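Catalogue entry: protein
Contents: sequence, fold tokens
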Amino acid sequence: MLITSGLAHPIIEKIAKVAGHNINIMNHEGVIVASSDSERIDQVHQGAIEVMKMASERVIYPSESENLTGTKPGVNLPILFNHECVGTVGITGDPNKVYNIAHIVKITVEALLQQNYLSEQLRYKRKMIEEWAFDLINTKFTNFVNLEERAQHLKIDTEQICTLLLLEIDGLNPKTATYQELSEKQNHILQLISVHFTPIFIAPTGKDQFFMAFPAKNNNDLEQIRRLAHQIYEKLVSEQLDIRIGIGTPQKTVQGYRESYHNALHSLQMIKKLQHSKKIMHISEWGIIRILDKIPNEFMDIYLNEFPTLTTPSLHSELLETLETFLDLDLNVEQTSKQLNIHRNTVAYRLDKVKQLCGLNPRSFNDAVQLKILLFFLKLID
């Protein structure tokens, strides 16, 4: 642990104003890195070198100072970090008057060194988790033994069943914010989630996405994870953030975590693609839609071209709304009329109109399935 001018100078600025004495902070080589007397910076302090060698305090009286290079009367104390002397603090003046002040500065510097060390350790671990998470979700990275070993080093128990959440936030866009602003927002979000929800691990997968894991009791523990996802959503919305959350299936092992991540990613993509009103979706909630989404667009186009009236003004928004509501309500005319606040005869008329225009009868189960798929295709390739 090195004592730098960046660490020492702010301390000097604050304490020197109230101490009324010159204060010096020296590094492990006895060089003054910060001082209330700017002319002394970068000078070698002989008294500090003695302190470093002995790892004990050195009180210098006026009669001795003339024989020590770059030294004036005062008190010099060792700065300790993990039981090692890493620098020195010196106060110029009558040793009897400045002794206590020197100890205050010493304690302050040592506390800051410890704080900096812990911060660096946290940053280092976060970087390692981010690198591990990046390899975990990268399908081209197939060394699962390596992923398991790194997880153990990071104290991530991959035998723990976890559900993976993928959170996306609008507004964290490099085109609309500076790098520093993005980093600050990203750090704020990471801290919020880590403090309030304590995930097993959390890592950004881009400027606007965050990948996180939470323990699950078993592979069917969906309600608990939905509640947690809603709590996270509410917390971040209260921070004026516009977010979406995709939820994967509970899994264990790094291979299972990867599968859960890609489930969450697919769910998130579907929310965006279909502009769904729900902002939190578990992959299982999509049912057959997630299979339809895997069909190439050219095949969707071929199928849609067989029913051209679906993509022309003939099937205007009123008919589409009625059709979609009818299909969503399990072909129930009564429920559709209530939902749309229209007469059931109006529903019947509109359904007949759809049949006339498309050649598919919404009241027929087989035709209704085709219409449902066609409407999904319209949204998926929009």
